[in-house]
Amino acid sequence: MFANKISHVLAGGLHKLFSHQSQRLQCVSLSSGICSNMAYSIVERGSPYSPDYRVYIQNKNGPISPLHDIPLVVDSTKKIFNMVVEVPRWTNAKMEITMKEILNPIKQDVKKGKPRFVANCFPHHGYIWNYGALPQTWENPEHLDDGTGCKGDNDPIDVIEIGSRVAKRGEILQVKILGTIALIDEGETDWKLIAIDVKDPIAEQVNDVPDVEKYFPGLLKASVEWFKIYKIPDGKPENQFAFNGEAKPASFAHKIVDEVHRFWKSLVNKEVDAKGISCVNTTIEGNTFKIAVTEAKEVINKTPVYGQPQKIDPIVDKWHYVHLK
């Protein structure tokens, strides 16, 4: 199920461990706004679909944290952002940036000791978009949002990327924010930004919520339904939305992005209690959490080597017929 075929051998030194296939994109300095080319690639460790599986991200110099070291902004004028892909479209494994491990690798969520897969709720199969997060963002669990009346969910802000291409796990996309919906997940505000890869064939025509309705008819309604029902097969109640599930426009979404970026800054600058969140990074100059690249390589080197994927329980393929009342 993995699109990238990556070498996972340690023999021959650390340079082999960090010589994987890379992906090219443009990044931007938050302070200067000057673009420069930077390559990102992934390093997979452990066995896929097992609790020890991890996807680490690296740039041309070595390991980085996808939460802290990848710039949020690609182009401030055009309002283009970096997005970390956690879950490719049509897949079921619930992968996410882990907050409490050094370098914040992507790992599979675990429920009752077993890797978690989202249910297929008819007519949906797995995730119906490329799902991920914006780097350098944090939904502060101590902040009570005026619009939703709920506090943040303690994670980077989520993104659903609606372009035509199926992305790859760990890929860094450049996206344009089109709007947002406000999921209330177990009493917490869980923003879902709606975005499109700027390289998508129709990206230039899609700039706001009405454009999503025009060029992707039915997708917003299906997305709200997906989030409402995807936990029901696990015995949980229907999820709720603020604003009656209405998608807020791009201008509203950009304000939310600015807010959660400020929350992230307060986190890495020790202005708030991190409460176990790892702020370790390898690129933020002058930051007290910064570590050397050699130390970061050792962190990865101590994890289990890549192994064959574990067998997936056939129940993952089951189609659940869930109907809202």
Structure description:
The chain is α+β, with helices and mostly antiparallel strands and 325 residues long. The chain is 15% helix and 28% strand. The chain has five helices and 19 strands. The protein has helices at residues 14-17, 209-215, 219-229, 250-268, 293-301, and strands spanning 22-28, 35-45, 54-59, 62-64, 73-75, 80-87, 95-97, 106-108, 110-111, 114-115, 120-121, 130-133, 151-152, 158-161, 172-185, 188-197, 240-241, 248-249, 319-320. The strands form five sheets. Strands 6-12-14-16-15 form a five-stranded mixed barrel. It has a four-stranded antiparallel sheet with strand order 1-2-3-4, covered by helices on one side. It has a two-stranded antiparallel sheet with strand order 7-8. A hairpin with an 8-residue loop joins strand 2 and strand 3 (54-59). Mean pLDDT is 89; it is low at 1-37.
Q: Please provide the ordered H/E string of secondary-structure elements.
A: HEEEEEEEEEEEEEEEEHHEEHHE
> What about the largest sheet?
5 strands, mixed, barrel
Unreliable runs, pLDDT <50, ≥5 residues? 1-37
Q: Strand share of the residues? A: 25-35%
Content-based structural category: alpha+beta
CA-based gyration radius: 19 Å
Principal-axis shape equals: globular
Distance between the termini: 35 Å
Helix content: 10-25%
- Counting DSSP E segments of at least 2 residues, the number of strands comes to 19
